[in-house]
Predict the structure.
Amino acid sequence: MLNWSDLEAACGSCRNCSLCETRHHVVFGEGLRTADLMFIGEGPGEQEDLTGRPFVGRAGQFLDEMLSIIDLDRSRYFIGNMVKCRPPQNRDPLNAEIEACIGYLRNQVALIRPKIIICLGRIAAMRLIREDFKITREHGQWFEKAGVHMMAMYHPSALLRDPRKRPEAFEDLKKLQAKIREVCPETYQGVIPLGNRAGRVQP
Ligand code: URA
């Protein structure tokens, strides 16, 4: 297992698959490296490839808005992707690309040791929860793997494309908030609840 700086350097010079030929930046992931909560998406899109940061495009901005409903921002969790380089035209990453990259994600999970992992979309859920995972049926359900609580939510791009899914995503957010309060309440330490932003930090 590599430490953070060696891992970031290894990702930065990775040539494990052909996505390295078209990338502008490796998108390593960002956020709190000691977090109890981790979000894992699919792979970088155009904005992420150009900036080297995860979830900064339209879907990412929408995700930030959603998570702010339950008082979460990037200082409270770590966010990354199944593959760290952009698939051309934002196609789904191929299994071979996911396998070429999964060691980096495993290393990140081993360093972070999260209590909760949220898969954003079916690609992450099918690799991390179960091969035949059905996102429409199984989003919002908790699974436990090696002591880690895992749930899949709809990918924010899917929620942008189909707003009718948003009420279900809201229910999933509430489940996430309840699980955080149950297994890692420190995640919310010092947070000023959204409804109370003009006020003081709650005791
Ligand atoms: N979609 C993803 O799955 N990941 C990103 O970083 C951006 C968009």
